[in-house]
## 1
Amino acid sequence: MNTSAPSMTASQDNGGQTRALLFALLPVAAVAILPLLPFVNDYIIAATVRALIFISLGQAWNVVAGIGGLLSLGHGVFLGLGCYTTGILFNHYGIPPWIGVWAGAGMAAIFALVMGSMTLRMRGVFFALATVAMSLAMVQLTRHFVDLTGGSDGLALKFNGNSWWAMQARTPMPFLYGGLVLVIVFYAITRWILGSKLGLEMQAVRDDETAAAAAGVSVFRTKLTGLMLSAVMTAVAGTLYMQFYMAIDPDAAFGLSQAIQLQLPALLGGLGTAWGPIVGGALMIFLSEVTNLGATKLEINGLDILVYGIMLLFVVLRAPKGIVGFFMDRRRGR
Amino acid sequence: MMQAASTMPAQAAAVALDVKNVARHFGGLVALRDVSFTVREGEVMGLIGPNGAGKSTLFEIISGNMPPTKGSVSYFGEDCTNAPAYMRRRSGMCRTFQKVRLFESMTVEQNIRVAASQCLPEGRNAHDEVASILSQFRLEAQAQRRPSELTLADRKRVEIGRAIAGHCRLLMLDESMSGLTHDEANHLITEILALNRTRGITVIVVEHVLSVLAAMVNRLVVLHNATVIADGTPTQVANDPVVIEAYLGTKQKALK
Ligand SMILES: Nc1ncnc2c1ncn2[C@@H]1O[C@H](COP(=O)(O)OP(=O)(O)OP(=O)(O)O)[C@@H](O)[C@H]1O
Ligand SMILES: [Mg+2]
């Protein structure tokens, strides 16, 4: 191939990094100045907040599935733990979400620890199935503890108007900045994981468990750590979800279409890459907004799920490494 | 656990590996039946046998990937039959696979770094260890490549580099020479013998054919139909009537 590659990349490294930084700052700046633009209304800001929320959820799933290679189909469990924990603590005990978020994260960590210890020694398929079973069990649990959770009707946050303390607002604008910060923090976490010892171990386990063990990696511990990290991230994003949507119900947390929406950003954008869930999540929400507009006009229900299906099919067939992976391969000339 | 006994008298080499009465069944199939042998520290031992003799299965059991149906494995005097594979690796028991298994999404450097960062002795850092492995196997130019961009010979060398990175006392190689050209194989043999000499690594080499091993090993174990039929120096084994009868056909053919 290209024999001069090593020296070329060496000399380009600095310019490449500066360009990458600019490239990263551009979307951040675009979101940050969004409310100042003349044609932007609350509708557009709310849609952007939705995108940021699903990007952050996608970033969390990407850690376990993209970097770690563990197909968790039941990540709604951790979303639900984040939403319900903050919601219940606030409604019933008056504890603000600033504290609730850590309680939710702690619940998710404990749940991931227990669930992981029971399922992560199984083969991958069984782990995936176990996560589905876990989601179904959570639906029953929320229905059972109806006093706390509101059962099938769901749990609506008590509204406090504009309140920093209650992490609530009448307009979507504060959530725009909250979401932006969360996405940036999760991006930094993803980059850190990818370059860390843990990240290398997770990728080794993803590529080949037997070879990873033969390299001295504790496969089980690596999987468990990845799952717990991802669960905590999902629950934290769940708190933002709860504060923005102001309500959660079993279907929104543990249902099938939510499970798909948790996975699509990373799948579309590129599994295991830091940019994948960002690109994929933005695209997913953009397309879902467009199809929702179309669906109301045409009076078709569930059009967005159909569009998701088509997108997924396209990615699987034409760009199995996602949009980011596709362009990275092209740049590398493969 | 499994810290090797370093208090052995200097004259007698320690027993690095002691395989005792190991059997392995796959349903009705007997892949190994009552296999016993020992390997002393510093030895380069060849393990040969025809297709399906059970060589790879034996490696799986020694390295902890698969439990034996019967029998036990000791490593430097400690029973490790029930120790998980990654713990054995961390105590310096290293191996390669018959079909090369690298982390395909990672660079050559990262492949080696994963192992180096698991089992480094106190005071050494992973970066230096990776650099030393890369230079030892002359893989510096390929360090940032993915495994899929390498030749088979280089893939095998990366796998050996990953196998010994960090801490290695016993290295088990499963048909490292197969699929290589004559020159590549000779080159690899030189590198393996250098590991034995400079790092004092005990080596077990699995091959199909005796000719590859004759010049390399000081001891040969022959596995045939799931059991050991000969154990001795290459000359002893080549002249063993049982071996000639059962496995090699004729002595001439064997030494070709
Ligand atoms: N996981 C398994 N399940 C069932 N049978 C197996 C398994 N692994 C190996 N075998 C069988 O055990 C026997 C020994 O296989 P093994 O791979 O150990 O032989 P080998 O000496 O390494 O042969 P080769 O030279 O072809 O690599 C073979 O009959 C093989 O089919
Ligand atoms: Mg074999």
## 2
Amino acid sequence: MRRTRPVVVGGISLAVAAIIFIVPFFFIFLQAVKSRSEASRLNFDLPKEWLLWDNFLAVVEARNYQLLLAYFNSTLITVFSVTILVVLSAMVGYVMQRRRSRWNGVAQVAVLIGLMMPPAVVPTIGLLQSIGLFKTMTGMVLIQVAYNLSFSTLLYRSFIGTIPRDLDGAALIDGAKPWQIFFRVVMPLLKPVTVTNIVVQSIAIFNDFTNPLYYLPGKENVTVQLTLYNFQSMYTSQYNLLFMNILLVTIPPLIVFIFFNRQIVAGMTAGGVKG
Amino acid sequence: MSGVELKDIRKSFGALEIIKGIDLDIKPGEFVVFVGPSGCGKSTLLRMIAGLEDVTSGLLTIGGKDVTYAEPSQRGIAMVFQSYALYPHMTVAENIGFGLSLAGRPKAEIAAKVREAAASLQLTHLLDRKPKALSGGQRQRVAIGRAIVRNPQVFLFDEPLSNLDASLRAQMRLEITDLHKRLGATMIYVTHDQVEAMTMADKIVVLNGGRIEQVGSPMDLYNKPATPFVAGFIGSPKMNIYSGAAAEGLGCKTYGIRPEDLTLSSESGRWSGKIRHVERLGADALVYFRVEGFGDMVARTIGSAAFQPGETVWATPQAGAEHRFDTPNPVAA
Amino acid sequence: MVEAQRPKRKSPYPLWFFLPAAIIYGVLFLVPTATSFWYSLTRWDLMTAEYIGLENFRQFFSEPFLVQGLINTLIYAVMTSGLKTIFGLLLAVLLTSNLIARGFLRTVVFFPVLVSTIGIGITFTVMMHPTRGIINVALEAIGIDGPGWLTDPALALFSVALVDLWKGVGLATLIFIAGLAAISPDYYEASRIDGATRMQQFRRITLPLVWPATVTVITLSLIGGLRSFDLIWAMTKGGPGFSSDVVASVIYKQYQAGFYGLSTAGNVILFGLIAVIMVPLTVMFNRREVEQ
Ligand SMILES: Nc1ncnc2c1ncn2[C@@H]1O[C@H](COP(=O)(O)OP(=O)(O)O)[C@@H](O)[C@H]1O
Ligand SMILES: [Mg+2]
């Protein structure tokens, strides 16, 4: 008796939790394969006709292949900013962890501020305009780097603490220059946390809506999230296409998640544990 | 082959002085062991010689050249770390050849030197493995191999055997001694284990609290310890050491007698006491007893001796084996 | 004599490693943050800034809909943070117990964290449609007249907060699971021998020992809540009226309207709000951690 009750309670709450978390995704998929009129009913009826491919083509071709451009832009921004981010934050985390200097305190405060404070948007726009980076991909990439440095640095710093310092000493005796110690000895050993960083930051930057909204307006610069946002007002009567779009936006993180589940979990909890 | 000279070497971390003025002259080709309790500054001193720690003040020369402020790679030294510090992402061959590759040597030359070093350490069949796939002893050898290819004037070892089990440790002790004979290079070896110091060293440097207590050959330190600290540190089981009233009765501040320098008798002798415990080690036996008004005493005798706990035993120091010091015993104080 | 030449040796950890990051971060984050304090005191069109003293702030605190944004921000942050903490811990306890399909359920709960906020916002907006949305249709089926989740001004903010909970609780759960995993099973066995019940174990062992994770969850979700913009923007755009406006959406609206100085004042107020809440909280949490 006393043993069955927790099982029953657990089972029920699990079923509820599963439904709550799965139903919306099921809903997305269902709407995405329906015809226009079926989708407008917004219900759970199965479609008479599965229009997965037709809806996919319709979304891709919409507005002169805007979605493809958006994927291209988002990918470009993500790849460049994550690459820069990984190298720069590893360098900062490394020196912060290894060397005691009065700049450490400054760096620490900077990291904390970066984790906590929102950016000052309009002054940033003013500044980007004055240096010619407003509405440019370069500007967007650098903004993503600046805004995500703190989190990456935090991940790197705590991981570098687990790399024995004797390795640096051995390399120094072997005649390595400082940058060789870092790039040839330390950096290769950071692979696990680098993978975590790449995965977590790629998802964050790919999913980012607010920053492109402010700093990257304009048709030729659209990103995936902005496209989706714009489709929302455009497709008020074509829910099937709207949801096909959502489905397409959901798939990249799903794929990444399937392959890098462990690294994502490691990064999210590690970053969280000492915030 | 070159000597190493330290002149009033000091090291502070912030306001805290860790190394308090070391003067030392190490001859070319000598095997010198720094020994002392944990935390006395052995590693710090060695790392200063390596150039991994800045020297706060003093002068350091290697082969007659002032290297006090030289880069580690410019000092003609190689170091074997306690943790071995093998590069985990490189194969054994890459680990050994890393220094040469950084120096931009031709690939063929690197390969030849790596093969030569590996052969001398029986590592040839392991060259393509990563450190993770090696046993403790093999890692140790790779670390030594990495040191050898640098062809250094001075080898530095920081407790290289402390991560190995007892039997492997004994074997590696011999191998390192052999290496020293073969290469004839100067070697500085740090350990907290006095057995390692006694068995390997040409010259032992006993460190305590950032200062040198005594420098000498193993038998010098054993026979003529300069201070009660050295007397207590060198030798196993430890020397019996007495201070206070007991020592003053014998005309000194601190009095010491080694367990193996006591003759036991069941009838007569200088001191007597009731046996509390007998440890039989096989060839030897250690007899523990308490001398009233004097203190606890250990004596070493033959393994077949018939002493039993509860009996009364008499002990007499052998002639010329007593140690008298005019300094108080730092441990008792 | 030796002291005469003392070339300082170069550290193997050069400070110039900070430089590239410091330039990007300094120019694009710190400089705008610093100048925002000045611009918040001006009437500004990105070209010329005219000093008007505290006028922007006076306006911010006298316009009811702007004050509403400030209050909403607090409500939203406290509510999402509290709910994520409670449900995160409950889910974590559930998902660390011996259950079938535990791994799958962890995945299911965590996955929304990784999905586009805009996508989720749109999906729930549709599901919360007052008449055709599946939530109200389902409620109707069991005889309940569902409310206008996003159309009722009294309810909109709470509805968005619930979606935020749905999307974000997975991260809280993950952090709590890590925290629970760090508690040695010895404590539970020892207390079982001492005769503790399940409930006593939870209150006297689990809760205190999972405190560091709790601090993390509260801190992260509060910061997230105070800054949140995209979900609200995707679902209600601050409406109906200004009923679900938060400071971040006010900043955007004022920016769109060309009131750059006022928008920046909103930004400065948001800095202040976060500082006023997070600094004492962090100090308090750290102190409690030290005491333990
Ligand atoms: N980087 C450092 N900063 C402060 N103190 C240190 C540092 N390195 C070593 N010490 C201190 O110096 C003393 C000697 O350390 P070490 O040379 O490692 O001792 P040993 O190798 O003899 O055990 C210890 O008390 C240690 O705490
Ligand atoms: Mg040491």
## 3
Amino acid sequence: MNFGLYLPLLAGLAFCNHCRRPADGQADALALPAAIAMGLATAIMLLLGGGLLTLADSARPGLPLPLVASVLQAASALLLAGTLQRLAAGTAAALGLHWPLLLLNSLLAGLPLYFLPSASSAAASLCAALLSAALFTLLLAQFATLPHRLQRCALPARLQGRPALLLCALIIALALHGLGARLS
Amino acid sequence: MTLVLRLLLLLLAIWLLGKVLRSSAQKLRPATSTLPPLAERIDAILPQTQCGQCGHAGCLPYAQALARGEDSINRCPPGGEDGIRKLAALLHTDYLPFAADAPPQKPKAVALIDEATCIGCTLCIQACPVDAILGSAKQMHTVLADECTGCELCLAPCPVDCISMRPATSQPADWRWGYPVIAIKAVKPGSSS
Amino acid sequence: MSRPSILPAHTDPGSQPLLTTPLPAQLRLWLQGASCCVEVGQRVLKHQLLAEADSEFGVAVHAPTSGHIRAIGPLPQALPDAPLLDGLQLQPDGLDEALSLPAESNWPALSALALAMRLQDMGVMGQHGPLLPLAWAAKASPLALLIINAVENEPFLQADSMLLCEQAAAVAEAMAMLGRILQPARLVLAIQQEQGAAINALRSLAADQCWQLEVIQAPYPAGDEAQLLRALARPEESGNSLCLPVAGVHAAGRAILHGEPCISRIVTVSTALKQSHNMRALLGSPVADLLTCAGLSSQQHALVHGGGLRGFALPDATIGIHQHSHCLLVRPRQPALTAQPCIRCGDCASICPSQLQPQELYWHCSRQELAQAQHWRLADCSQCGLCSAVCPSQLPLLDSFRLASQQLLLAEQQQCAADAARQRHRFRQFRLERDKQEKAQRLAERAAQQAAKLAQQAAEPTSHAEPTATAADKQAAIAAAMARAAERQQQRPAVAPSVNSSEREAAIAANRQAAIEAAMARAAARKAAQEAAKAAAADAPAMAKDEDQNKPGLNQQQQALIQAAMHRANAQKAAASSSPASLDQDKKALIAAAMARAAARKAAGDETEQDK
Ligand code: SF4
Ligand code: SF4
Ligand code: SF4
Ligand code: SF4
């Protein structure tokens, strides 16, 4: 795994997240808060998963990393989803913080982090987790505001809506791939 | 050390998420309890012409019927399409165009009583829903143009047909800028430079 | 904010003289907010009143010269899109015979309202309608700050500077007059730094006067009322201050101190950016005459009324000028520019003096999303036109902002009207309900009185007259109820107005029928009561022997009360199930309840009478 793959993966993930949002007036008004909330939730899950992994590693070293990491990431996602369900079910649902989505984000954004070559030390992995959460938030916000901005472009009718968005996602993914390839 | 830092960051992120959730919860429910009843809110949108073209005895009964879900939102011609849009937004329903047989929309007009013909029968006073007609038995009647909503309810009862509708008088404030016109350049095939 | 590069520096009128246009062959006066008081063909003298203000916003129109009225009717006006509005065509006869109007001899005694009305009658116009708004003058609140606005309201206008250079003394006189009558705590003449000649002309006069000279340094839209108030008013003054254009103030001085109505104004005719002429032109002079006077022909040029930023094109040169025509811009004809999509260059946002985002605003305005436009602070747009001027895509930004704010204003007015109508409608319903109740009460009381009187007449202490009397009462109550029903039917045209006219006629006929029937019923009831009373009188001797006289009466009263209570309960139940289907039942129940109540009340009344 390297950044050249990981960063486009984040872009794809953000696009999937965006596609899951319902398209009505209220969702439009909450698009930005929803993006921020999902970004924060991802940050929490990454930090929690990483922390738990460190603890597990120190308690009983020698466990197979892929298995433990995926279990812990899934556990942290489900923990967060459960807490949200208990404390603020309605708001969380309106902001699109559903458990399948949280699980997906936690696994896809979290697991590759442990296999990045640069994340060998604890501080570096913490840094990587924070930065990837921040990038993910930015991408989500980008996709939340894109439809409005695309509306104002004189696009051909065939491209309006989803296709234009998909093209944008592709362009972003390509750019991020370029960036990631240079980083790693 | 990094574990402590990680914990701190975790707490920070949880706190931030809590704030975001709380603020959007407020946005979601703008204190429904303090809002007036639905019929009142619908009534506030209706144009208050009180003309009865919606098939109800005025705007408030129509609003009440809408609040109970007993009528559709495209019944009020004075409100125009804008009014239907507002109703659709308030009631969370889809926009409905006017029915084909709906009464046509007219520009705002006010009633004018031909004072020479008026016989002072007071029938129009009884018909006017907003008390915009002044007069008394066997005396000439007149319309208060500022109060008249243009509902046309006074036209039919008049036994001598002396009431007519006039376009509302224009004031300097009524004058409108025209729509901006964007000149369109004709592109002739073959004349590309 | 740096001075926008598209704006030329202000030029002073300098050495150029003030021209006077020759008498035109035709004058076209605008009659908005004024009703004509002359006739076609009539000869009028200079200064004669042609039209009186007919609303709070109108001003009177006076003849600029002597001549004949040729036409009264819709004429094209110097407004965007040249709408046809009522106008008056005057053909001068060249004699220029003037009516001498009396000057206000006792002007210091005028009140603010009297002054405002006098100015309206003299045709002195301010920014919106009469120079002093009547509504403001009627309030007679103390004035903290009076600003005389001599800032040119667009770049390369010179009309106000010219006026100050030529007529500084007259303006000073007029300001002293206004200061004397309106008694502002502070009187300020605002002028822009670039208007050097005018400042010099005023400096010499400003000493020991009641007003101060304020030199404004801010760039272009500084001449707007709102901007001036923001710049000059102290926080405590901002609530009650007034801003008047200097041209209007000068005209007010002429009108009050010399009795001259406002019949002319100074117009800047500007060709290229450098060359401009100022001329005093009679109101209503055709634009072509002004151009000729400036040595131009109207054929080869495109005409813009107003300055280069906020002006609008005039379709032809026969249109007459009006009180707001401070500038005519003459430009070589160019092919119409085409609008392109916004390229988001951001030029408009960086030049906007109100710190708005015109490109966002334009997007929402052009899609008629007024709520969004308001959110992007359309209300703060001073409509200065700078964004339109700099836009490389030639988008009609200013036009769409104007239109959108007009629409917002209109929506606000409609909302106000709707609120007023709602209130009046509710009050009417309340009034009808109240009238109905009062009428029923009156009828019931009258019937009760009659019955009691008859019973008394018949025999003094008769106990047996009671049942018949209550029967009569009941009949009266029925009559009252029927009368009420008839009344309700009469209101039906207002209540169910979707019926067409023939149906409505039928309904009205039915109402009359019902009213007649009700009257007949009432008469019948009265007769029945009389008969009952007679019968009671006949029975009286026999019944007089009865020992306890009150008992049957009491029983009946109790029964009536119980009945009434039951009826009321029924009525309440019926009212609780308030579906439209049960309307008839409702009505019936209400009528029944009302009857029962009337009967009970009467019974109680009888009791008290008997107690006496
Ligand atoms: S048609 Fe519209 S304006 Fe007329 S009564 Fe019905 S709701 Fe009111
Ligand atoms: S005057 Fe006539 S048209 Fe105007 S509100 Fe009254 S009934 Fe309606
Ligand atoms: S017209 Fe309005 S939006 Fe445009 S520059 Fe002026 S203030 Fe700004
Ligand atoms: S100046 Fe014109 S093209 Fe540039 S951002 Fe503004 S509206 Fe768009």
## 4
Amino acid sequence: MTRGEYFFHYLVSVAFVKGAGMTLLITITSLLIGMGVGLILALGQGSRFGAMRSLTLTYLWLFRGTPVLFQLIFVFNVLPAFGIVLSGFASAVLALGLNEGAYMAEIMRSGIQAVGRGQRTAGRALGMTEWKVMRFIVLPQAFRIIIPPIGNQFIGMLKLSALVSVIAVQDLLLIANQTASANFRYLEALGAAGIYYLVLTTIFMAVQGRVERWANRRGRRGTMQPRSLTQRLIAWTSGQVAIR
Amino acid sequence: MIEESMAMIDSNAQQQAAAVPLLSIAGLRKSYGAVEVLRDVSFDLCKGKTVVVIGPSGSGKSTLLRCINLLEPIDEGTIVFDRQKISGTDAHGHHVRIDIGMVFQNFELFPHLTAIENIMLAPVEVRKVPKAQARDTALALLEKVHIPDKADAFPDELSGGQQQRVAIARALAMNPKLMLYDEPTSALDPEMIKEVLDVILELSNEGMTSVVVTHEMSFARRAADEIVFMDGGRVIERASSERFFGGEVHPRAQKFIQTILH
Ligand SMILES: Nc1ncnc2c1ncn2[C@@H]1O[C@H](COP(=O)(O)OP(=O)(O)O)[C@@H](O)[C@H]1O
Ligand SMILES: [Mg+2]
């Protein structure tokens, strides 16, 4: 087989498709966990109770103050000592999700704060409890505001997911690496994996564009300019990304 | 004999009911830090009546409204609404606010919901009215505020006057016993003021008990049973509409009216 043939062979192989699927699954699951944790942290930060605020601050300190790779290995190797034995996949999404939450919290917080005070007052004046105001008025609007930064987190998470290969989760990178180490066809195997990463990233961007257009239709027009894929790409390649 | 006396007690009770005000505020005080914003405010409002509150900017009118529906805790005084002392029950303020509608200067419609969704939200989620029924009520209310064809429009597709009328419909959907309007036309272009004031006036005439903060004097003259003039956190003057516009008012009120009219 020529180099090209190897490359193409890997690209369409079941193993690579599975690896890409695993990468995608880890990315989506971790991000969803991260959004949930981030929302709880954001609400905790804005809480009336001092203990709640201290607790969230401690969380942020722990998860932002240590490397995500450390957290990954910690969850996989240390939790079993306390009787919590998780599969590689569960450890991966737990660690990545908990870590993501610490970064998502800030995005959620800024989204919630961007919803004007008058909106909350209007909700309260209708007899809603604080919780209902949050649920029906603040969060739906905050969600529309944070779609763009969440899209960026998504792409960040896709790349971060490559770390899980250290705890033997069969993701795209591990598959590529294992395949290559069998016959030293690194260029071909990693090239195929790279194509998958780029395709996934690009699909995310397109999906993000879709969601933004939907949000624009459902009110709050004017706060977000519709952007083409190219504009998105330029913005994204020039933006700064949090280092973990 | 017994029946007669029972009937008398009945009619006495009815007369008393008419005399008991729906809203009664006594000795209300409110400070923000060291700044005293409301100083000993008292007034009563009987069922079906409309009081118009006027006064210069910063005199405490908005704060007064926000205290009435417990959006702001008060420092001193009592507020009695619908025979219940509500002051001091701030933790359960949301129960009180179910029965008190409020309309804001900046409309504050929920931008992610259509007009009809704005109107249906609280009845469905707070009063637990079935959706279909809430929808019918909402459509009827849109008709009442003269924009039946805007049910599915988003707030930013509506003019200011239309948005404010949706906001009024949204408050009415909770079937409130009292309506509070905080400068409902101050953010509107002049050509839209009338359409909003007309709706408020219609509601007033139909017997909706209302507190209206406004600078629109011709509206005050037509809609108000009573005018309250505030300045520096105090009620300076309380007068019937006739007396107020007849010129028998406090010099400070007089001066204020002059500045508004010019
Ligand atoms: N949340 C607040 N915190 C501090 N001061 C406030 C607050 N709300 C109102 N004030 C002050 O209270 C005074 C009365 O305000 P307001 O009730 O809005 O007056 P009006 O509606 O008559 O213009 C003003 O001096 C204002 O600055
Ligand atoms: Mg005001």
